[in-house]
Each structure stands twice: as structure tokens, then as C-alpha cells.
Amino acid sequence: MKNINRITFAKISAALLLIGIITTNEVSGQVSEIKALSKATKSLSSEVFSGGGSDLGFFFADVAVDVFVYSFVDGHRRMMQRRSEEPWLLSLDVDLHGGYYGNENASVLSPSIRGNWGLFSSQFRYNKFQDFTASFPTFDWQILQFNIVAQPGVNFRIGSGFMHEIDNNKSYYEQFMGLELHFNQRKINPVVELRWAEDFETQRTARFEVNTRINWFLARYGRVNVNLMTGFLYQKYYEQENFYFAQAGFTFNIY
Question: Quick check: is 24 in a domain?
Fold first, then answer.
């Protein structure tokens, strides 16, 4: 980075401080009870966008632009220079996953798609679980993820976006952290992901999730890798309702 003046340095420092203070709070259930808990909370759309704080918003938007320009562009460029040897740096990951929790006779469907472009990724997921009382669908969009480590044997990313509850029309900021390991020429791929969506008004966690799985390489068709997925999914809603899903499905990597 060249010719960074003191004001720019102060902005970058403020951004790093902001990242450092983003923390998560602590996180026998049935879906109908979760829907009732959701209705009792306030969402990001009703609180964060209800006016005020415009000057602060403009300041942090300016900070974000500066951090992007000075901190990320060069790293992204260098990553993309490796693309001929590491084609997954520009790729799509498509997940068709589902799970079942026997104790509550509950099931979950969670298909997703993620685009990867060097340092950056963006992921969209539809998550719907249900038991005998009701269903609870959400749209989850990780708007921007940063591939902090992107090497042949390991990928570590962090991200931020929102979780939107479809039935109650509420949205919450959602943070993301994921680690992928790759063994035997990417034929055995363990994955651990954390998600937490915060209700800032009530200081409650709308959803906390731990997703652990292994993608087992099956076959390659042209530019598409086909993987069998097996794993475990834990979700906790409104710090009360716990679900433990055994999950399985397929993952497609398109280079």
C-alpha cells in the first residue's frame, strides 16, 4: 500500500477494531414454539433501518471502501494468478443436503449455492426444517465472504450477511466462519462451519449453527466434481430450541 495518509490509516484501524469487537452471544424443541419466539422479537429490518445513524453509516461505508482498496485488491490479484494450477479459485459449489432428527421426528432441507472468485465468495442457502407441528423456512444470504486462507490443502473463510425468516418476514444479521481441509488430491474433504444470527434489540441469538461434514469424491464429469456428503448439523433457535440432524446429500464443484 502506497501513500496512505493518517486519515486513511485511522479509518483502517477503526475497521479492524470493528471487526475485532464483533462477537457472538451464548446460544427438547418444536417448530411451533420457535415461530412463537420469532414473533416476539424485533428484526433487523424494523430496527436497523428505522432511521438515524446516517452519518455513522456513511463513515463506515467509507471505511469499508478504503479497506477493500488498500487491503484486498492486491491479495485478490495474486490469488487469481494461481488459477491455472488451482481452478477452484474461480468456481461454483452446489450443495443438495438434507437431514433427520429422530428424537423430534424433524427433518431439514438445506440446498445452497456459493460462487468463489479468488479472495471473495458469496453464498445463498434455503434452509427449511419441520416437525409434526409446523415448518420453519429461511433464506440465508452470505453476501460477502473472504477466503482468508485459500491453499490446495486448506480454505478458511469468514463472512457476513443475513438470515430471513420467510413466514414472519423478519431478517437478522448473520455471521459466518468456515474451515475446509482437502486430502488425497481433494478426494476427502472435511468441512466445519459456524453461523450465528443476532437479534441486536433483544441481545438474543436468533439462530446458532454448527455444521460438520465430509465431502467424499465420487466422480468427475468434464468440469464438474461430484461428491457424496455425510455429516452432522446442530441448530439452536432463540437460545431455547435444539435440533441435532444426521445429514447426507451431494455436493457439486464446478470449475
Answer: no
